Prior knowledge:
Layout: E1 3-9, H1 13-24, E2 28-34, H2 38-46, E3 52-53, H3 57-61, E4 66-69, H4 76-83, E5 92-95, H5 101-110, E6 117-118, E7 120-123, E8 143-146, H6 154-166, E9 170-173, H7 176-202, H8 217-223, H9 230-239, H10 241-264, H11 267-292, H12 297-301
Parallel strand pairs: 1-2, 1-4, 2-3, 4-5, 5-6, 8-9
Antiparallel strand pairs: 7-8
Helix pairs in contact: 4-5, 7-10
Amino acid sequence: MLFNRLIIAGVGLIGGSLGLAARERGLVREVVGFGRTEANLKVALERGLISSYTFDPAEAARGADIFLLAVPVEATRSTMEKFIPHLPPGCIITDAGSTKEQVVKTLEDVLPATLPCVGAHPIAGTEHSGAAAAFSTLFDKRLCILTPTARTDRAALAKVRALWEGVGMRVEEMDMRAHDQVLARVSHLPHMIAFSVMNAVLDTHVAGVDLLPYAGGAFSDLTRVAASPVEMWRDIATSNREALLTAISEFETALAQIKTAIASGDSETLSNAIERARGERQRLTRIREQRESGEGKEEAKKG
């Protein structure tokens, strides 16, 4: 058993799935939920995601040796400040945020030396949210990125790694700034595109027809993540603003090239753009298949 008492602040898809997986695999003795709404915490308790819940930080902190922040990233400081006076020395603070530089800097700024912190991003999820959406196999064979800094306690880092590996994840370490640049392009940008495509269609009227009943698989696949939680993605976009704005500009350039080719009837340029995208999408499929079989890292490095 890795930990005696795990506090989860934010028992939603990620926090709830970790609680359930850690309990099922015997990684923790007790999981205490902390959140804003009792209805959600009751669902978490009924489903076995947590052992108990409370709205009292002092009660939750009693005997805790690890604390998971699974709240919207902009709530990092306010949530942590509620707990700091009550957490026992040595309790490891970690998180599950999709952006890392702002979160890690906030944690290192607000936490005393007696509370080690380790930035973490389990790259797993669905478009659903809340305790009702959690499931124990969410993390199987998925990637978790840890973002240690010069101040990170190495023993705490090893224990956080063991936790995520224990629930089935592959774990890598990465500089927090590099993490935010990478994820801006492969996670945050696709969400912004999905939101934009949905809004573009909703704002368009063709012969008075409601367009959505005519949407096929391509539209549904492209916009699946547009159903994601508002607060979470609002905070991700604002906390990773600079990297995301750069990624959006890169996308605008690529889209403009295709638009120009269509406008000018340049079938060769259009064919090349489609073929290049098609080839890379096929490579992504191979990477994912190889990761499922535990082989994928070398393929991911190619190209």
